[in-house]
Write a structure and sequence with these properties.
Two copies of one chain form a homodimer. Chain A has about 425 residues and is of the alpha/beta class. Chain A has two domains: about 250 residues, Carbamate kinase, CATH 3.40.1160.10; about 160 residues, VC0802-like (2-Layer Sandwich), CATH 3.30.2130. The longest helix of chain A has 17 residues. The mean pLDDT of chain A is about 90. The interface between A and B is large, with 38 and 38 residues.
């Protein structure tokens, strides 16, 4: 068989999938079954650390120092995946399947030097191609890379998914399977709404919006990578029976490959933003500039913006920011309240952002009108709105989050 | 300061010295104090894994497979030192001392590919020299190397000591300090004989014999390395107060540097050999050859040999072998008993080998005579004897081991 013509697939297993030895054995069985079901395919495996291991290592570091040095934190954290790849490789070897664990320096996963949150710059796929050509299965440590200086780096949240997608792109893989502890991507959070349905197919862009807007199954960075390099992703469960492609899970594909383009594909929510309102500010462009310049200077990330007139030439301006930045944002705005000639600033953390996402919005209008009518029927008032080509987000009081999700899901998805 | 003229010292800390976070903090304090006491010196640190961690990893592997694949075992085991070097480096950084953890591939500690028991072939000292020249302290992972194929290897028992000594040799270090949980090398095992005294100085060759003959504080391979490259070693306690060179511990130096050359420096013992006796074998060279050829073919390591006439042209031939090979040796000899025309073979595991070691034996005769007289006075019969230029070993029944050690220690050391 000519290896260069054999399709490659990447199988990535998350922390709960390799959470203990019995699960690592299950992963080995799954890889073996996949191989048997499709002998023509070349498999590359990417692993996370055992669930809980990264937290254990972080605790060790925190016991040792107040503020762990990022370079050394990466050396410490990288041991987590090193353990799981060695164990899975030895398990496969014992089953008579040739397999080799590989660390980031061996695969030459080059990153910048932003320790604990590095970005992949390039992957030298030759090492993996050689192993694959020799008939063995490379078992690659996710989450880690190597800087130009030869130091270990880690990729931050969602890092193992990013490794998998980046490898799939470098190897021009047919598919990148993301095995996790849920059956796939749902139309909304099943814990909030029992009508949530498993999605068969979503586009990269929808998934990117859904991941950014609260769907936790994938990190937005890995979806962005998959979109940019047109890597077909499949999210599926390690613990469900079957492992043949196409049977289970959710496919994340290019928009052109969607059979149908529903108006709304998913309804998501998140609780991790805070709303700040500057009250009684002069309604002029100069004050606005001062406000947003001050926040930009402190690197505060602003999500939604709205303003509301309150009397002659005065407005209340509201913004939402990540909750962990709300203290910084509050302090920053308080410092310029006199300069702004505003009355003051308030912060509201008891909020939820609920979003509807769907590529169909590109082709159909009226989603906003339907959404507002639907929420009004439930007596839910909308505090802020934010839209893009394929999504619409509304800010509501947190206690109405579940009701808003269910109402919007019933309205658009059923 | 011209770095090339600043002396380098290697400080190696074993598993109990970095056994938990409070001990890692203590090691950081010790390194800081050493630096302050001698600012002209350049420090390189080598660490073991936390005590117990290697066993934990071995257990994980054994849960996962029956026979762990050596290449993957090395990937797994190497995580142990990676954790401790990261933690110590972040601790030193937080104390305001520039430090950098380094893994074997970064230091280019090249080994052969004998996984789990690799031999160091070369070290590229430039990386460490650069870090040291920049005023930082390299914190190097002990026990591990990298093969020509770019795979992680480990050095087997005593591996971290070997890393330390090899680095000291490559850097032409002034001294290699081996910090451990005992105050140094004793003239005999203090648990067996309260008269055991801490030795101030021993020669490399004495230490090599003592390590091979039962002194557990250093592995013979690291002593051999130190002897071959004339690296001055100091064995000392992490947990004693002082850390200035020359105050505590045992110096292991070239024989020429010994102030005095005592007849006997140490009395050691070990229990891990078994004695096999072939009974009633014809006393001719042909039978002897058959016996030793058969054992050599099965790679049985033979330590002591003796023969004793039992009637006309018949002898009993005894050998000692490592206890873990006694089953193999017994089976091998049993298979050739008819060919040898011997009466049979017996195995005796209830034995101890007691040795006296000292460079003074080179220059003085009569040690054997004094030792035999001394043991005879105690009513201890000697079953076998083995001598070299600087040591004499006797095999005794195990229950007499402690009495033999005490008697010989009193006779020669006092």
């Amino acid at each position: 068989m000519n290896t260069s013509e054999s399709p490659v697939v990447v199988m990535k297993f998350g922390g709960t999938s390799v959470g203990d030895i019995s699960r690592i054995k299950r992963v080995a069985d799954l890889v073996a079954a996949f191989r048997q079901s499709d002998p023509g395919v070349r498999i590359v495996v990417v692993l996370s650390a055992m669930a809980g291991e990264t937290n254990r290592l972080v605790r060790l570091a925190k016991e040792c120092v107040d503020r762990p040095q990022p370079r050394e934190m990466d050396v410490l954290l990288a041991t987590g995946e090193q353990v799981t790849i060695a164990l899975l490789a030895m398990r496969l070897c014992e089953m008579g399947i040739s397999a080799k664990s590989l660390l980031a320096p061996q695969v030459r996963i080059s990153t910048d030097a932003r320790h604990t949150n590095a970005q992949i710059e390039s992957i030298d796929s030759r090492v993996i191609e050689d192993i694959v050509a020799a008939g063995a299965i490379p078992i690659v440590a996710g989450f880690q890379g190597i800087s130009e200086e030869g130091d270990i780096t880690t990729l931050g949240r969602g890092g193992s998914d990013i490794t998998a997608v980046a490898l799939a792109a470098a190897l021009r893989a047919r598919t990148c399977y993301i095995y996790t502890d849920v059956p796939g991507v749902f139309s909304t959070d099943p814990r909030l709404d029992p009508n949530a349905r498993l999605l068969e197919r979503v586009s990269h862009e929808e998934m990117l919006e859904m991941a950014s807007l609260g769907a936790k199954v994938l990190h937005p960075r890995s979806v962005y990578f998959a979109m940019r390099y047109a890597v077909p992703l499949v999210v599926l469960s390690t613990f469900a029976g079957a492992c043949s492609p196409g049977i289970n899970g959710t496919w994340i594909v290019r928009e052109e490959e969607l059979m149908e383009k529903p108006l709304v594909t998913g309804v998501t929510h998140r609780f991790d933003e805070a709303q700040l309102t500057v009250e009684g500010m002069p309604d002029d462009i100069e004050s606005m500039s001062k406000l947003f310049d001050a926040l930009a200077e402190r690197d505060v990330y602003i999500d939604m913006i709205s303003q509301e007139g309150v009397g002659s030439h005065l407005v209340n301006v509201s913004v939402t920011v990540p909750d962990e930045q709300s203290g910084l944002a509050l302090e920053t705005i308080r410092g310029i309240v006199p300069t702004l000639k505003a009355n003051g600033v308030t912060v509201e953390r008891d909020i939820a952002k609920v979003s509807v996402v769907g590529v169909g919005m590109r082709y159909h209008t009226g989603v906003a009108a339907r959404a507002f009518r639907c929420l009004a029927r439930e007596g839910i008032s909308v505090q802020m709105v934010n839209t893009s080509e394929i999504k619409m987000s509304v800010l509501v009081t947190r206690k109405y989050c579940e009701a808003a999700v269910r109402a919007l899901h019933a309205e658009f998805i059923g």
